[in-house]
Structure formats: structure tokens, C-alpha cells
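Open question from group meeting: does this chain pack into something compact, or does most of it stay loose? Before anyone orders reagents, we agreed to write out a predicted structure and look at it together. Recording both the input and the output here so the notebook holds the full record.
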Amino acid sequence: MQEHTNAGDRWIPEEDYQFVCARVPILCVDLLPVIAGTSRFGLIKRDTYDGDRGLNLVGGRVLLDESLVEAVDRHVDATLGSAVSVDTASLAWVGVYQYYRQPRPGELHDPRKNAVSITYAGIIEGEPRAAGEALSFHTFELSSPPAPSTFGFGQGKVAYEALTRWRQLHGA
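C-alpha cells returned:
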């Protein structure tokens, strides 16, 4: 896991991680990145599960003693490259979302783990380059998001709520 999360030696061995995932929810952060100086936002395309691929927010697990903002910064760096930075003053809290291992009607699903994600929308600056788990980075007009069916893990619901929150705060 270290190779695509920039966790270094702060991450735990895969066998231990699987043991933990089988017993407790995993805390995560997600970000809907809004491109500085534009009316556009970005999403990564990544592998999901069962060989599928979909559009996703940028994010992942929070490390021990890592603040939520530090986790957002780390995941942006690991996924969009070191040339990209987050304007942390712009971070807008969107909500708390739970992903279930077993599918539930109308709920988010990730068969790998039960995760709880603190989700934000915020401005990124710099030139994004897909890295780590990101296969590619795509931008969209704030007013024209992709169809919910194009998202992985059911994140279309989360992205649409993040866009609504961003528009409420910024009149975009």
C-alpha cells in the first residue's frame, strides 16, 4: 500500500491491515478537487473492484496521528503529483459517508472494507498528473458532472452532494 499512498513506514503490513479491516471500520478522507481559477473540478479514474474502473474522488485512509487535512494533502500528492497543492483554507466540509462491505440498497459499497469517509471539496493549484492509484485525471465543468453510473464505489452520490455544497458556498 505504501507505493501509492505516500505513507512510507507509517503504514502497516498487508496481513495486519486485512485483519483490522475484517473487524473495524477504516477512517478515510475524500476530496472533490476544484481547479483554481476555473469553473472546473477533477476526478480520477481508477480500478475499483471485480476488474471494474470508475471515476472517483481523491482520497484514502488516514494514518495514526495524522490530521484530516494532512491526510487530504498526502493523498492529493500521492494521486495527483507533487506539483499539485491543496488550498487548505478553501476546504469545505461536505459530509461523513459510510461504505459497506456488503451491498445495501441506496448505500455506498466497497467490498474490500467498511470505511467511514470525511469528505471535503476544495481548491487545488498546480498541474495534476495521474499517479499512484489514479490511472488518469479528468476535469468537468462544475455545472456538468458526469453521470452517476460512471463512478466507482457509488461515489456519484457523494460527488453530486459535494458539488451542491460547493455551489452553495461559492455561488458557482
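Observations to bring back to the group:
The longest helix spans residues 156-170.
Strands lie at 26-35, 40-47, 53-56, 58-61, 85-86, 92-100, 108-109, 115-125, 136-141.
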